[in-house]
Amino acid sequence: MKCIMVLSVVLPFVLYGTSSAGIIDPCKSKCEFYPSVSPTVLFVCPQGDTPSFSDQGWWLSLEIVDFNSNPIADIPAADFWLIDCDPALDLVLCAGSASSSADASTNNQGLTTMSAGTMRAGGCADGLSVVVQGFVLEDESSNCDIYCYPIHVRSPDFDGNLTVDLVDLSLFAQHFPTPYDDCYDLDINGHINLVDVSMFAQHYFHECQ
C-alpha cells in the first residue's frame, strides 16, 4: 500500500513535467526592452522599407523557457512578431505574423533578439507586445500581466488599409499643420511639419508586398 501511495504522488508530477516540456511559458519567459532614445518611435510602412528597430533607437532581448523553466532552443525567427497591446488594435499588420520577426532562431539557452528587423504595418499605436508562436509574453513580476512596451508606432498609412494612397494624403492634409493629432506626427516631435511631409512623401503609394 505504501508503494502505491508513493506512485500516486509521483506519477502526476512526471506526467505534468513531460507534458509541459517544450511548451512556451509566457509568464516565465523574459523580454527586456533597451531604448536609447525617448520617446521611443517606430516608423513603419506596409512595404517594410523603413529603418531597423535598432536604427530607430531600441531593441529587445528575449529568453524563452517552457513550463519547467527549461530553455527552448530552435524557435524559428519567423515565429516572433510584434502586436499592438491596446485592445482597440489600431495597428494593422501586413501579412499578420510575418509583419516582423526575431534576428535569429533561439539558441541553446532559449535566447534571441529583435533588433535588425523592420515592421510592415499601417495605423497608429502607442505600445507593443511580443508574440512567440501565438503566446503573448507576460511579466512574471507583475502578476503575469502582458508586457506592453512604450514604443510609439507611426505609419503614413493612416487609415490602416495597408496602402499609402490618396485617402491617407487627404487625412494628412486635414492635420497639417493643425489640428494636432499625434498619429499624424510621424517623428513624434510635437509638431506636424515639413519633416512629416517628407516622411510621408517617401512612402506615398507604398503597399504590402
Throw out a few tags for this protein:
209 residues, alpha+beta, three-stranded antiparallel beta sheet, three-stranded mixed beta sheet, 22% strand, disordered N terminus
Secondary-structure element string? HEEEEEEEEEEEEEHH
- Poorly predicted ranges (pLDDT <50, ≥5 residues)? 1-16
Structural class: alpha+beta
Write down the Rg.
21 Å
Would you kindly provide a brief summary of this structure?
The protein is an alpha+beta fold and 209 residues long. The protein has three helices and 13 strands.
Walkthrough of the structure:
The protein is an alpha+beta fold and 209 residues long. The protein has a domain at 24-156. It is built from 3 helices and 13 strands; from the N terminus they run αβββββββββββββαα. The strands form 5 sheets. It has a 3-stranded antiparallel β-sheet, with no helix packed on it. A hairpin with a 5-residue loop joins β11 (138-139) and β12 (145-146).
Which SSEs are present, and which pair or pack?
Elements: H1 2-20, E1 30-35, E2 40-43, E3 58-63, E4 80-84, E5 92-93, E6 111-114, E7 121-122, E8 124-125, E9 128-132, E10 135-136, E11 138-139, E12 145-146, E13 151-154, H2 166-174, H3 194-201
Parallel strand pairs: 2-13
Antiparallel strand pairs: 1-3, 3-6, 4-9, 5-7, 8-13, 9-10, 11-12
